[in-house]
Design a protein that fits this description.
Blueprint lengths: L1 H6 L6 H7 L3 H5 L1 H11 L3 H28 L20 H7 L3 H4 L3 E6 L5 H14 L4 E5 H8 L4 H12 L3 E7 L6 H14 L4 E6 L6 H4 L6 H9 L2 E6 L4 H17 L13
Parallel strand pairs: 1-4, 1-5, 2-3, 3-4
Helix pairs in contact: 5-8, 10-11, 11-13
Amino acid sequence: MNSQAKSKIPLNDLPAQLTQLGLHAVAAGCDDFIARATKGRWSAHVMLEELARAELEERAQRGMARRLQRSRIKRFKPIVDFDWNWPEQIDREVIERAFTLDFIREGRNLILLGTNGLGKTMITKNLAYQAVVAGHTVLFRTAAELIEDLEVDSPELRRRRLAQYARPLLLCIDEVGYLAYDTHAADLLYEVVNRRYEQKSVVVTTNRGFKEWNEVFPNATCITTLLDRLTHHADVTVIKGESYRVRESEQERAARRSKRCPKKTKKPTSEKS
């Protein structure tokens, strides 16, 4: 069957042959590559070096695109747009140190704790993206998505999905505490954290203090152990202030009002002669 597929490619179809060999970058720009080699009078050694460089660059780009798609980060604002002066309290040093990604190499966790609208998700998605760019495997999920994904009837399917959450080098769990869950949900979250404990990093965002997690997972007996494993080898940073989204909404409303009701300028009165 493979021999039949090979025979369908004409011997003079160089791009098709290169594609079959997995040399996609050179195949896509075959004519340009040959032209540059001819113009530059490349030696065989230089030609092979350029071919290898082009293929490695293309594979790195494809690898990053694949990791980014699998990470499920989706859309986010870049960290350069983050207003560090808006929160009343934020440990900028801890967050900027996290962007060196040393915590991933050390298998440490990062927990961002604060009320809604202070940029916890924005920071987390930027961290996740930076990790993808650095070549790490990443998975971003909200707590609700993670728990829903694991609440399946089949024990075998649940084991496979737990293994998927244990696999990436960085796991980001967003919005823990925004909804209330049952005891079983706490057990599932514990399983995820436990499988990664002291091996791979977790970033968690939450709007509830740790003492309030018993309200998020009422009657769950594993909360103490869950928090013990999550906060051990972790940086916990608290962000305080008013919602940035509320401020943006107020600014947008004010802008709309000013457009609807422009200030009237008084007409100059003419003097009587």
